[in-house]
């Protein structure tokens, strides 16, 4: 099967070509610089950029894959969740293309696609040479999956391929949102998550103590608003810290340590309780080095297999959308009707 997938759920325009479990191309056009001066994503500007970039990005994906449009056997797009005004650009474009070609169309839940991104590996890790990312579902096993991004933090039990159950999620601020908002309080550039990651590497994670929300609660939910508020008051009471570069590094390391501990402890606890031996992690915050290192350490200690999504598949991308769409179509999932609408609040169930 040869499939084109589009992703426009937030501020990255992406198109990918998937064929028989391989991502032949995965083009991503980022809007970070556009939104940086506003300290966050401006939906109207994001949609405008998607409209401008979608056609050339899709053409690049087809060209890089060496595929002509009339060779496509299906078309997919992110249907939700996401910014409505951004989602609609890619979703309607994909619907229109599928209709024009007379091929099946399938709308994909962005979070469900994240669940399977850790099972996509680079050729080098599999000992192969083709310039493609390869879905490794022959080694798929039940797993406890942590999806952690700017807008969502979820724990999901994946019992088998295409069968999952959400155990818990964000009840207020997500982990990525906490990174960005606490970074903004420190005066760091947007997006602050990667900046905190870099500065924290030279800081002392024990310099300051911040709360670990819901760490000892028996549920699988997450809450980071209290941590963000604690940092706000701490900076208010100690403004002089922001004039000392080393203390800013220590502050970054201390905030990061609090977030990472909550994510790791609750993930490992959920994996133990549900009797799985594999942990997977995906989403933009999975790029954080401390999180990757601490998860690896915790999984080794508890005898769990750990699969981390590759960094270029952690952030929004059409490759993971295409892989999931292909798996669904091969499993005889019904195509999405051409008159179906976007689902901006489409919660993973």
Structure commentary:
- This protein is α/β, with parallel strands linked by helices.
- It folds into two domains: 2-122 and 315-330, ATPase, nucleotide binding domain (Nucleotidyltransferase, domain 5, 2-Layer Sandwich), CATH 3.30.420; 142-309, Nucleotidyltransferase, domain 5 (2-Layer Sandwich).
- 43% of the residues lie in helices and 20% in strands.
- The protein contains twelve helices and twelve strands.
- Strands 5-4-1-2-3-7-6 form a seven-stranded mixed sheet, sandwiched between helices. Strands 10-9-8-11-12 form a five-stranded mixed sheet, sandwiched between helices.
- α10 (289-302) links the parallel β11 and β12 (305-308).
- α4 crosses α12, α6 packs antiparallel against α9 and α7 (192-200) crosses α9 (245-273).
- The protein is globular, with a radius of gyration of 20 Å.
- The two termini are 28 Å apart.
């Amino acid at each position: 099967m040869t499939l084109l997938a589009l992703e426009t759920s937030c501020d990255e325009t992406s198109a990918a070509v998937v064929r028989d479990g391989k991502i032949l191309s995965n083009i991503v056009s980022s809007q970070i610089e556009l939104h940086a001066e506003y300290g966050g994503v401006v939906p109207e500007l994001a949609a405008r950029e998607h409209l401008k970039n979608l056609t050339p990005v899709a053409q690049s994906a087809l060209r890089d894959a060496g595929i002509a449009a009339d060779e496509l056997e299906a078309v997919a797009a992110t249907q939700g969740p996401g910014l409505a005004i951004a989602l609609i650009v890619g979703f309607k474009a994909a619907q229109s293309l599928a209709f024009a070609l007379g091929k099946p169309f399938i709308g994909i839940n962005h979070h469900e696609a994240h669940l399977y991104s850790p099972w996509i590996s680079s050729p080098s890790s599999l000992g192969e040479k083709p310039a493609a990312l390869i879905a490794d579902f022959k080694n798929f096993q039940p797993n406890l999956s942590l999806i952690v991004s700017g807008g969502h933090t979820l724990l999901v039990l994946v019992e088998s391929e295409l069968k999952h159950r959400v155990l818990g999620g964000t009840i207020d601020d997500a982990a990525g949102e906490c990174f960005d908002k606490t970074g903004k309080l420190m005066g760091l550039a947007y997006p602050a998550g990667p900046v905190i990651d870099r500065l924290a590497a030279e800081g002392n994670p024990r310099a300051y103590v911040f709360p670990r929300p819901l760490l000892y609660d028996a549920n699988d939910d997450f809450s980071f608003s209290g941590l963000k508020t604690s940092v706000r008051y701490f900076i208010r009471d100690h403004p002089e810290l922001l004039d000392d570069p080393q203390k800013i590094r220590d502050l970054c390391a201390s905030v990061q340590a609090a977030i990472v501990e909550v994510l790791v402890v609750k993930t490992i606890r959920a994996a133990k309780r549900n009797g799985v031996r594999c942990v997977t992690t995906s989403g933009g915050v999975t790029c954080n080095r401390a999180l990757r290192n601490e998860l690896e350490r915790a999984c080794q200690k508890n005898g769990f297999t750990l699969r981390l999504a590759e960094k270029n598949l952690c952030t929004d991308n059409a490759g993971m959308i295409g892989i999931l769409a292909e798996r669904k179509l091969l499993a005889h999932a019904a195509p999405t009707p051409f008159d179906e609408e976007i689902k901006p609040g489409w919660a993973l169930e």
